Amino acid sequence: MKTIETHSPRTLEEALALLEMMGDGIRVIAGATDVVVQVLERKKDPCALLNLSYLEELRYIREEGDLLAIGALTTHREIERSPLVMAHAPLLAEAAFIVGSPQIKNLGTVGGNIANASPVADTVPALMVLGATLILRSRGGTRTVPLAGFASGPGRTILKPGELITQVLFPVLRHDEISFYERLGQRRLLSISKVGVAFRARRRDNRMTNVAIALGAVAPRVIMAPNTAAFLEGKEYAAVVAEEAARIVETESKAITDMRSTDTYRNRMAGALLIRGMARVCEGITGL
Ligand SMILES: Cc1cc2nc3c(=O)[nH]c(=O)nc-3n(C[C@H](O)[C@H](O)[C@H](O)COP(=O)(O)OP(=O)(O)OC[C@H]3O[C@@H](n4cnc5c(N)ncnc54)[C@H](O)[C@@H]3O)c2cc1C
I need a surface site. Which of 48, 214, 222, 287 has the fewest CB within 10 A? Predict the structure, then answer.
């Protein structure tokens, strides 16, 4: 059996130095829940590993003025249970809740979910509508980049050699904002997304403004649905409005057919999830 050299730095500085020194010869792991699967499927060679999981300095959820800052090593479990996330970004708590199983949620990190650049990653649509930015650190310095431009396709990102995601940052939702993350999988839990819909809007006197919608699992990367958002802008919520929005979102959903679903079904379900989510947050109707 091949042994894999593993480095487990205790500080970010040490991790960045190792990453710079070893270049392509080392692979970053956080919770390793994606990497282990990739290694088993032999999609990636098990070279030396840089294990970030001891970097306590990257495991936090805190308010910074009007922003919520989440360290890259924060697990889905920590996000799902965080009173700050529940109060200021409930749709992110919903997304973290739905990830995998308790075991996966205890290991899998938000940084890993983003860096893996999978179109089915559950936290990414939620973070996209929150307008999240990422802090990327290397020995050479720090970059702040919008999450929306981070992934260019499955497994492809703008991360440069030597860089790590260290933080996710987004404005907290205001008291008059509504939001949801709805996902369809083979089962309610313990399944990968067939389609995910994240939504946020300001709602005053039933009228919606600043609408943002993101779709997961229906394109090579998580995408926004600007036409649907524009249609809803300034409108009062009503079931018929949600149904019309659903027809538009189905045209913005660019799903493919694969072993999990057909393109037609996924596109239709994007609409159905939008109707379900809007009924839930606007009317308190559940179980649709
Ligand atoms: C059984 C099972 C069920 C799952 N269910 C779901 C699900 O329902 N929803 C979902 O979204 N995902 C799911 N996943 C996928 C996975 O658990 C998540 O994507 C998780 O968040 C990955 O985090 P991690 O810390 O384990 O990443 P890792 O596997 O450690 O790393 C993933 C990738 O990110 C890179 N990376 C990690 N951290 C950083 C960093 N800070 N900076 C730069 N690069 C970094 C690694 O090099 C690697 O390329 C599931 C996985 C399994 C095995």
Answer: 287
